[in-house]
Design brief:
Blueprint: H1 4-7, H2 13-26, H3 28-44, H4 50-61, E1 63-65, E2 74-76, H5 78-98, H6 101-115, H7 132-147, H8 154-169, H9 180-191, H10 194-205, H11 212-228, H12 232-242, H13 246-258, H14 262-278, H15 284-297, H16 300-313, H17 318-327, H18 330-343, H19 354-362, H20 365-373, H21 380-386, H22 391-412, H23 416-429, H24 435-449, H25 454-459
Antiparallel strand pairs: 1-2
Amino acid sequence: MKQINDLMPLATLEDLRTFCQDYARKDKKFNKELTKFLNERFIEDEDSAADFIARLEDAFGEEKNIGDRWHSYYVTDWDEVYSVSTDVLKDARRLLDMGNASAALQIAMRMFELTDTEDLNYVDEDDGDWWLTDTLENYGKLLVESIAADSVPQEEKDEVIDKLKKMVKSEIWNFGYCDMSRLLQEASAASQSDDAMLRLLDEMISKPGLYDSDRAEYALRKIGILERNGRADEAKKAIKQYLYLPEVRKSEVGKAVERKNYTEAVRLIKDGQKIAVDNNRNTREWKELELDVYRRTNDKAKQIELCRELFVLDRGSMDYYYELKKLIDAKEWKAFLAKLLSETDMQAWYSSCIEADIYVEEQDSERLFALLMDAKHHTLDMFDKYAHYLKSTHSDELLAEYISMVKDYATRNMGAKHYSRIRQAMEAMLKLNNGKAAAHQLAERFRDVYRRRPSLMAEISKF
């Protein structure tokens, strides 16, 4: 019989795991000793993370040649990095779940350090690092959960925070695979005192070249911490300091609405609109917030005023059309709508437009017909979408236009996708009175003129 030293090299890791698990179920002494060994190895040992980190480091060190027979061009082997980092993430998550948060934290931190290096050969998503953003997001979640654990010494937590701070300042992270500033905030909030977090936020707010959106995010976190700790005066001072930022002002509007202090909410909104105008910014969001306040207070006159302004600003909007129709007296509605449409530079697309949708809702066949006949909207797509609404009033005129447009389209276009488009238009003609006869007549003409276009003949065979 062969000895264990000869047989062991043939065994796979899965073979050994299966044997250990099965034997541990049968033998209590072996179960106890194996459990003790694994606890010492992975839970109690300060170096529990070492082997996992080594696997990550080896993977990031792997390169592959993507050159040709004349040139050697080595880049990071992203397939290897993906495979190993995914497996190590699962192992680190198990360590955290079993109580070794320190090891999980070390592994997560090392993953970020390995991607924060100038020596790493980054490539575009077609070459393999398309998954890196999601993977780093998951490692970030692991880091935040781990650093929050009470079992991790504060000294170790502080060390990780210092490393993250340096990475935030690193130009390398401009590759954009991970929002390091957000990760730093979340890790700090999970591991640092409120005072330490406030100092960090002040440091980040004062960072040169910071976008207003980022500054607002930091300011809101600062205000939240101050308010949560009952430091009302400091919170008010911070609010006053950063109220010029739209996100901070909107937050205060929300608080005022919650308190049902609608007068204060409107004042904040009006000032926000003025700041937007002074800085050549869009006022739409402020008007929407103001409209929401008037809905809550049932101020009908103000609702009508704001809905009208937003309808014009949006170049037409079915949402505001419906709201206005509910607010305006039925006897005044037609005149109000006519004036509103005359004041609005209506938005239109190649295949639809808000104005046509409104005429459909209003069952105004004459204006819808005039719109379709207007050169701006005189397209097959518009006819396909709206002509059937005029079936009972304008079928003859629309069929004549359909035939003219489809004939012109066939003259100017060849190819399978264009023949399919011709068939679609002829199918739309069937929705009109006498449409079947008109489509058949048009098909007969095409069979005579374009008999050498078999693909077209196949498309119109049903007519």
